[in-house]
Specification:
The protein is α+β, with helices and mostly antiparallel strands and 75 residues long. Helix content is 27%, strand content 37%. It is built from 1 helix and 3 strands, in the order E-H-E-E. The radius of gyration is 16 Å and the shape is elongated.
């Protein structure tokens, strides 16, 4: 009999705007690092979560689905 395997589905949709490409990529990378830090601290539950930039403006959302199943159930 197989053991249960943990799965995580993660969808990120961000729309970041700014004055220059270099600025936009830096702000996007910063937002992704904040999301990763929060994920490692177990701050997310299943579902959609709104994301904001450093100024508190909405920049999109992230979706998580934490589940478990057997190897044959792989997504």
């Amino acid at each position: 009999m197989s053991e249960l395997t943990q799965y995580l589905v993660c969808d990120v949709e961000l729309k970041v705007s700014g004055p220059h490409q270099k600025t936009v990529t830096a702000w996007t990378a910063s937002a992704l690092r904040r999301i990763a830090d929060r994920l490692e601290r177990h701050e997310f539950d299943d579902g959609h979560h709104d994301e904001t930039d450093n100024a508190g403006r909405s920049i999109g959302s992230v979706y998580f689905d934490f589940s478990e199943g057997y190897e044959s159930d792989e997504p």
